[in-house]
Amino acid sequence: MPIVVRIDVELAKRKMSVGEFAEKVGLTPANVAVLKNGRAKAVRFSTLEAMCRVLQCQPGDLLEWVDEEEPPT
């Protein structure tokens, strides 16, 4: 998938557990796992806003577009 979710990186930077993050954002740990593992088909803006508020980051810190056509360097 060309959109890569970087929640795990931001959680590691803050030494925050998935459970703590899920509670603060208002998601279940299972739904956070779906997001982290790139299995989500969509993310509500309200959820993205809550994640950014909890992690004090920008949406681009959590989501990255990767061109699948271009070979890795």
UniProtKB/TrEMBL annotation:
UniProt feature coiled coil, ranges: none
Gene Ontology MF, one: DNA binding
Pfam families: HTH_26
Residues of the HTH cro/C1-type domain: 13-62
InterPro entries the UniProt entry points to: Cro/C1-type_HTH, Lambda_DNA-bd_dom_sf
PANTHER family noted in UniProt: DNA-BINDING PROTEIN, DNA-BINDING PROTEIN-RELATED
Entry protein name: Putative transcriptional regulator
Species whose genome carries this gene: Actinophytocola algeriensis
